[in-house]
Please model this.
Amino acid sequence: MNWSNSEFDEACEQLLIPLFEGVVRAPNNALSGLGRSQRNLVKEAISSDEFEGKKGQRMVVWTPGCRVMLIGMGEKDSLGHRLARNTGARVMASLSKKKGLSVCVRFTSGWTGQRMLDFAEGMMLRDYEFLEHQEIDEDHISDHWSVQFQASPRYQEALEEGLSRIHSVAGGVHLARDLGNEPANVLYPMEYARRAEEWAADKENITVEVYDWDKLQELGMGGLINVGKGSDRKPCMVLFTLNPDADEGIQRPCIVGKGITFDTGGISIKPTGGMWDMKYDMCGAATVFGLMEALHATGYDRRVNGIACLAENMPGSGAYRPETCSRPTLAKP
Model:
């Protein structure tokens, strides 16, 4: 998504107007940029009994050159973070690029700056699709949305700062989703490590260290070794450090993620019905990677450590057995 913020100006190809329950006429600036015939059509829709602004209600008004969507937000005093964000996500999911890529979201009376950002966050998080390894339909539109968030002048500075931060965080979320959605034959432990090293290569304030199979054995990391030794794709551990020179001598957060890129259950094989979803057993490690991307993109200046423990749990002659005795790192003799 390409985003911008502005005062009430143009109406775009698709105009979204979120309104609160009880609205009987168009709020100030709601119809800016529309022609007379367009304004009359929208005014008539808002004042009609068919649109009351109740939570979850939506009405599309077709006007020449602009598709207007009225969005019911419910009672103004009941609007919280979750409702605003979820509504933004649902609206984003309902839009069609075939109706136009330029979208204006117009926040009028009753909206606070934080709730505007919550609504935008929902839209940005929902603006996601994973089409790798698939045949794409000829009529699929891959161009990005161009979304303009419009509000009164006093909100512009906070909107610009907040939207930039949210967009960066959404980028980290989308990266984590991409990793989780990759098939296990494409994203296996050392491929995750390769992508992490490639990602960090041009970032001055991030280091990535990889403990490969030989390093794991040298350190005696029996737990991770045993889970992954039944697979030809051997386990590894990836250590991320954001701002490694910051916060010396004080405690720093460390985020640890489970990264079983495919979990058959090993010798204790899992039922067939749930096997399709076992690639998602690495989503903890995907979250670590995505979090590092989000923190870096937002300019976070404190030190954060991330650890992704990666293995593919497969049945094989080397797989660990029930009641296998292993000695994890730091275990006392």
User: Anything to note?
Assistant: The chain has two domains: 2-129+140-181, 189-313. The chain has a mean pLDDT of 93. Residues 189-313 form a domain with the Aminopeptidase fold (CATH 3.40.630.10).
